[in-house]
Design brief:
The chain contains twelve helices and nine strands. By secondary structure, the protein is α+β, with helices and mostly antiparallel strands. The protein folds into two domains: 82 residues, no CATH class; 228 residues, 2-Layer Sandwich (BirA Bifunctional Protein, domain 2), CATH 3.30.930.10. The strands form two sheets. It has a seven-stranded mixed β-sheet with strand order 1-4-5-9-8-7-6, sandwiched between helices. Strands 2-3 form a two-stranded antiparallel ribbon. Helix 5 packs across helix 10. The model has no long low-confidence stretch (mean pLDDT 91). It binds 3,4-dihydroxyphenylalanine.
């Protein structure tokens, strides 16, 4: 019996190798695999095999059937594809499969919008490195030697003299070191702070810095520029105010608030019941900063401002947790 099985196997291999169309293949199927075919007959014969041989013969018979079936299926698929008969493989009436195209991250979209608005106001775009000197990040910007931001707790120091920049303001220094007034530039980029990660703070975020220096630049111009920016970015349905503040590199300094979107100024969780949302810091460039870059502060005045992009977008789109920006969860990203 084992002999017969092995011969059947050989015969089938031989015959299938000569099949060249579906009709011949169907004949071969009937001969070997149909209910009265050779293999079914062999299974019938299994009954007559002595009991002790049954397991071995049965096993070999099963192998034969599987091998024949597989060879048959493979060739059938091939022949169908060749003859164009395979309706399942190609159905030209089906709609095409859409390619899913990626989109810009919401932070990049927000940054692009900010850039477009400031370009329209006559600002160019400058960039600086994320690994910055302590001098550019702090000293040149008039931070006192014992300022708390210089603490390792707040800043990622690389060594004594270098750090990951904590804000984009050092790019102001680089721009002024390389260029004489007039200057009108915005400076976007990543900044780093050694903070505990939570819904409200992250060790990395993005800022846009702004700088304008020329003869006779005034605080009124600063206000005009920033109000124009905010109107274009947030629309006209809000009030704004400038609140006195302090930054080492500007004097006087201010923070700009706009009416809270959520409660329209009535007071809610978003604005911590004040009715106002802070959107940026700004001020007139401190004469000490001009001195550090070799500008004549008798001749020139200027203003500067800085805003966090995550914060700006959090306020515009009511995003509940800053970590969402960095987790790359498509369910979040696809909403924008
Ligand atoms: N560098 C400040 C910060 O990180 C933001 C800032 C405030 C920038 C006032 C400025 C400015 O240029 O004038 O909080």
């Amino acid at each position: 019996m084992l002999q017969t099985i092995s011969e059947t196997n050989k015969n089938f291999s031989n015959e299938i190798s000569q099949v060249s169309d579906l009709k011949q293949l169907e004949n071969l199927r009937i001969k070997y695999l149909s209910r009265k075919g050779i293999i079914a007959t062999l299974f019938e014969d299994l009954k007559t095999v002595p009991k002790e041989d049954k397991p071995a013969v049965g096993k070999s018979l099963n192998e034969l059937r599987n091998s024949v079936q597989t060879q048959f299926d493979t060739l059938k698929e091939k022949l169908e594809a060749l003859s164009g008969n395979n309706k399942q493989a190609v159905d030209f009436t089906l709609p095409g499969r859409g390619k899913s195209v990626g989109s810009k991250h919401i932070l990049i979209q927000t940054l692009d919008e900010i850039k477009t608005i400031f370009r329209g106001l006559g600002f160019s775009i400058a960039e600086g490195p994320e690994l910055e000197s302590d001098y550019n990040n702090f000293s040149a910007l008039n931070f006192a030697p014992d300022h708390p931001a210089r603490d390792m707790q707040d800043t990622f120091f690389i060594n004594k003299d270098y750090l990951l920049r904590t804000h984009t303001s050092p790019v102001q220094i680089r721009v002024m070191q390389n260029q004489q007034p007039p200057v009108r530039a915005i400076m976007p980029g990543k900044v780093y702070r050694n903070e505990a990660i939570s819904a409200r703070s992250y060790c990395l975020f993005h800022q846009v810095e702004g700088l304008c220096v020329d003869k006779g630049v005034t605080f009124a111009e600063l206000k005009g520029t920033l109000v124009s920016f905010a109107r274009q970015f947030y629309g006209s349905g809000f009030k704004y105010r400038f609140r006195p503040s302090f930054f080492p590199f500007t004097e006087p300094s201010a923070e700009m608030d706009i009416t809270c979107f959520l409660c329209k100024g009535k007071g809610c969780r978003m604005c911590k019941q004040t009715g106002w949302l802070e959107i940026l810091g700004c001020g007139m460039v401190d004469p000490n900063v001009f001195k550090n870059v070799g500008y004549d502060s008798e001749k020139y005045t200027g203003y500067a401002f800085g805003m966090g992009i995550e914060r700006i977008a959090i306020l515009k789109y009511d995003i509940p947790d800053i970590r969402l920006y960095f987790e790359n969860d498509l369910r979040f990203l696809k909403q924008f």
